[in-house]
Amino acid sequence: MNISLELLQLLDAIDRRGSFAAAAQALHRVPSAVTHAISKAESQFGFPFFERQGRRAVLTEAGRSLLDGGRPLLEAAGHLERRARQVASGWEAELRIAVDALIPAERLFPLIETFYAEGHGTEIRLSCEVLAGCWDALLSGRAELCVGAPGDLPGGGGLTATPMGSVSFVFAIAPTHPLAQEPEPIAPDRIRQYRAIVLADTTRGLEARSSGLLSGQPTLRVPDIKAKLAAHVAGLGVGYLPLALAEAEAAQGRLVIRRTAETRPPVTLHLAWCSSHRGKALQWFRERLATPGTIASIKLEAFALPA
Q1: Contact at 8 Å (CB) between 296 and 288?
Q2: In this structure, how many other beta carbons lie within 10 angstroms of the beta carbon of residue 87?
Q3: Cβ within 8 Å of residue 131, ≥6 positions away
Q4: What one-character-per-residue DSSP string does 186-206 give?
Q5: Are 198 and 212 in contact (CB under 8 A)?
Q6: From CA 214, how far away is CA 73, in angstroms rounded?
Q7: Which letter does DSSP use for residue 253 in this model?
Q8: Quick one: 94-166+267-303 is in which CATH superfamily?
Q9: CA–CA separation, 248 vs 243, rounded Å?
Q10: What's the CATH number for 169-258?
Q11: Using CA atoms, how far apart are residues 174 and 233, in angstroms rounded to an integer?
Q12: How many CB atoms lie within 10 A of CB 220?
């Protein structure tokens, strides 16, 4: 194959700077070496790459086609080299962060913006997980860091976690739902007669968890907290919602909060990560996510309450 990254680099330099001499200076080579390399390549390809227009070297149509097709290869090679140097310096090529459904992913955007502003080249990949999904993402290698992993740390080791706070829940239903007029506290046998709206656990390997679900109760499973809220408001079923979210909707008359005989306890959220991962990007996010100010900024008002 006659196409090489060196040839593409030469064509690119000449095209950008307009002459062999200027390209040679930019590439820290002598002009004669550049001229010889281009002449040799033109002989191998069987057509000229440049034509002279006064003092300028202008790409021929064939030369332009070659360079336009080769520039993505130059960019990819440069990106690959930068990634390799970055990894060698201790900064990961990519950091995968799993975010629990109770924390809006956009709350991490200011922190990610700061990370990029500091010049770090690690690519960030966010994913949303539900219930045991965060823990499973860490254990299965789908993520190196998890924000808001709920409940207890699973057994088996390999993970480190620190509490971020807790979320309180209340039983919230549409004003038009039959249980809206039920005497309080509402008994489990009455609740069991109606469809429960629950978040679908995203775990793939761990045992799926359920929350606020009674034995034998019919269910409507939804993908995220926004869909769950909308289903409550639409009167499609019953269930528990984060206190602040339910109160905000109740203030607008879209939901009513009812007291139940069996309450759902608060859920502790954790910042968790793979213990064996030593990358600098993970350390950067761990340190900043552990500060009280950052924790407060990523919570949706009282979505998560202080532990």
Answers
A1: no
A2: 15
A3: 150, 151, 199, 201, 202, 203, 208, 209, 210, 211
A4: BPHHHHTTSPEEEEPP--SSS
A5: yes
A6: 57
A7: T
A8: Periplasmic binding protein-like II (3.40.190.10)
A9: 9
A10: 3.40.190.290
A11: 5
A12: 15
What pLDDT does residue 172 have? 95
Which residues in the chain come in under a pLDDT of 50?
A: 300-307
Task: Classify burial at 18, counting beta carbons within 10 Å of its beta carbon; exposed 0-12, middle 13-18, buried 19 or more.
Answer: middle
Residue closest to 199 by CA, chosen among 298, 133, 256: 133
What is residue 302's predicted lDDT score, i.e. its pLDDT?
Answer: 40
Q: Domain 5-88 falls in which CATH fold?
A: Arc Repressor Mutant, subunit A (1.10.10)
Single-letter amino acid code for the residue at 74: L
Of the chain, the end-to-end C-alpha distance in Å amounts to 64
Name the nearest CA neighbour of 279 among 156, 133, 95.
95
Contacts of 93 (CB under 8 A, 6+ apart): 83, 86, 87, 122, 123
CATH 1.10.10.10 positions along the chain are 5-88
Whether omega before 31 lies within 30 degrees of 0, making that bond cis, reads no
Comma-separated ranges of CATH 3.40.190.10 domains in the chain: 94-166+267-303
Domain boundaries for CATH 3.40.190.290 within the chain: 169-258
Entry pTM: 0.67
Query: What are the pLDDT digits (tens) for 82-93?
Result: 666 666 666 888
Q: Residue 185 contacts by C-beta under 8 Å, 6 or more apart in sequence?
A: 259, 260, 261
